[in-house]
C-alpha cells in the first residue's frame, strides 16, 4: 500500500482520482482549502464519500500556506504526489487574477518544492489544454510550441510546466504534467458547460452559447481521465508532458443536442460573440499518452452526458425541476 497526497481532493477531478486510488487499496491523504469559488456543499458531499474509507485522511489546507504543507509532509511518508489543486476557470481569471497567482503559481511552487525536499517517488500534476492558446494546428500535440497563452489561467499552467521542468532537471524529481481536455462527468463543477446547460434547460432558462455556437471541444469523460492520471502516477519518468483527451472534437451545438435529448427538453439558445480568453477548438493528439501510459479513452459523448444527467437528477432531485 502506497501513500498518495492528492491536492484538490474535494474538487471534481481530485475527488475521482482519490476514490479510484482508495478502491484499488492505496492510502490517500486528501488536501483541499474548500474555497467558495463554487458551492462548497458539493465539495463537502464529495468529501463525505471519501471519508467513508478508513484509508483516507483529509487536511483542510491551502497550497499557498507553505508552513501548513510542510507539517503534512513531515507527519506522513508520502510516496507520490498528485497535484490536482488549482484555481480553475478561464473567464474567472479576468475577474480575480490574483487568486491564480496565489494558488497556481505560489501554491504550485510550494508543493513541488516540498515534494523534492521529501524525495517523493513521483510528482504528477494537472496542466491544461488551455496552454495551446489560439493554436490553429489540430490536433494539438505536446510537440507544439505553447508560448502564446491567451488567458491568465493558461499562463499559470504553462508556468507550472516550466517550474516542473526546472525541478526535474535540478533535483531529478520525476515530473509528469497532464494537459487535460474539457473534462466532464458526474460530480462535475457548476461552472462547467455541461452543468450550466443542464441546470438552465431543466429550469426552462436560456443558455448562453458563445461564438454563435461555432465551437468544438475535445470533451473527455472523467473515468477516462482518471485512468490516464493513475497510469501516469504508476509510471514515473524524469520529465514528461501528456495530453489526456478523448481525441475527438465535438461540435458545441451537437453537445447541446445531446443534453436536450437526454433531458427531453429543447434549449432556448442565446447566441453570443466569442468571450475573451476563449478558443474556437480543442482537439488532442494522444499518441504519446497511448504509447507511454496505455491511455485509451472509450466513453462516447452521448454516454457521458447521460451519465452526468443521471447523477445530476439523483443529487439534486426535484430541487432544480
What does this molecule look like?
The chain is α/β, with parallel strands linked by helices. It has a single domain, classed as NAD(P)-binding Rossmann-like Domain (Rossmann fold). Helix content is 43%, strand content 17%. It is built from 11 helices and 13 strands. The chain has a 7-stranded parallel β-sheet with strand order 3-2-1-4-5-6-11, with helices on both faces. It has a two-stranded parallel sheet with strand order 7-10. Helix 6 links the parallel strand 5 and strand 6. The chain is globular and about 55 Å long. It starts with a strand and ends in a 5-residue tail after the last helix. The model has no long low-confidence stretch (mean pLDDT 95).
List strands and helices in order, with pairings:
Layout: E1 3-7, H1 12-23, E2 27-32, H2 40-51, E3 56-60, H3 66-75, E4 80-83, H4 92-95, H5 97-117, E5 122-128, H6 152-171, E6 175-180, E7 183-184, H7 193-202, E8 207-209, E9 216-217, E10 220-221, H8 222-234, E11 239-244, E12 250-251, H9 252-263, E13 269-271, H10 287-293, H11 301-316
Parallel strand pairs: 1-2, 1-4, 2-3, 4-5, 5-6, 6-11, 7-10, 8-13
Antiparallel strand pairs: 9-12
Helix pairs in contact: 1-2, 1-8, 3-5, 5-6, 7-9, 9-11
Amino acid at each position: 500500500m502506497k501513500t498518495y497526497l492528492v491536492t484538490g481532493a474535494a474538487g471534481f477531478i481530485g475527488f475521482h482520482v482519490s476514490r479510484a486510488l482508495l478502491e484499488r487499496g492505496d492510502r490517500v491523504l486528501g488536501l483541499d482549502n474548500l474555497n467558495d469559488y463554487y458551492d462548497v456543499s458539493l465539495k463537502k458531499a464529495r468529501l463525505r464519500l471519501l471519508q467513508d474509507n478508513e484509508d483516507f485522511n483529509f487536511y483542510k489546507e491551502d497550497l499557498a500556506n507553505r508552513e501548513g504543507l510542510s507539517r503534512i509532509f513531515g507527519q506522513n511518508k508520502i510516496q507520490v504526489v498528485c497535484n490536482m489543486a488549482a484555481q480553475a476557470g478561464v473567464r474567472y481569471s479576468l475577474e480575480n487574477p490574483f487568486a491564480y497567482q496565489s494558488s497556481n503559481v505560489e501554491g504550485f511552487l510550494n508543493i513541488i518544492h516540498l515534494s523534492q525536499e521529501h524525495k517523493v517517488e513521483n510528482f504528477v500534476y494537472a496542466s491544461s489544454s488551455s496552454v495551446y492558446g489560439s493554436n490553429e494546428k489540430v490536433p494539438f500535440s505536446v510537440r507544439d510550441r505553447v508560448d502564446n497563452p491567451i488567458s491568465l489561467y493558461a499562463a499559470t499552467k504553462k508556468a507550472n510546466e516550466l517550474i516542473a521542468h526546472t525541478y526535474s532537471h535540478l533535483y531529478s524529481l520525476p515530473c509528469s504534467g497532464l494537459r487535460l481536455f474539457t473534462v466532464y462527468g458526474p460530480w462535475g463543477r457548476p461552472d462547467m458547460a455541461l452543468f450550466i446547460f443542464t441546470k438552465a434547460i431543466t429550469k426552462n432558462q436560456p443558455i448562453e452559447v458563445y461564438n454563435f455556437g461555432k465551437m468544438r471541444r475535445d470533451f473527455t469523460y472523467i473515468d477516462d481521465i482518471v485512468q490516464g492520471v493513475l497510469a501516469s502516477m504508476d509510471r514515473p519518468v524524469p520529465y514528461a508532458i501528456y495530453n489526456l483527451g478523448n481525441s475527438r472534437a465535438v461540435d458545441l451545438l451537437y453537445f447541446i443536442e445531446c443534453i436536450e435529448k437526454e433531458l427531453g427538453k429543447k434549449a432556448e439558445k442565446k447566441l453570443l460573440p466569442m468571450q475573451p480568453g476563449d478558443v474556437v477548438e480543442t482537439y488532442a493528439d494522444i499518441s504519446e499518452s497511448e504509447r507511454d501510459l496505455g491511455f485509451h479513452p472509450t466513453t462516447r459523448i452521448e454516454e457521458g452526458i447521460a451519465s452526468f444527467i443521471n447523477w445530476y437528477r439523483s443529487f439534486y432531485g426535484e430541487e432544480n425541476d
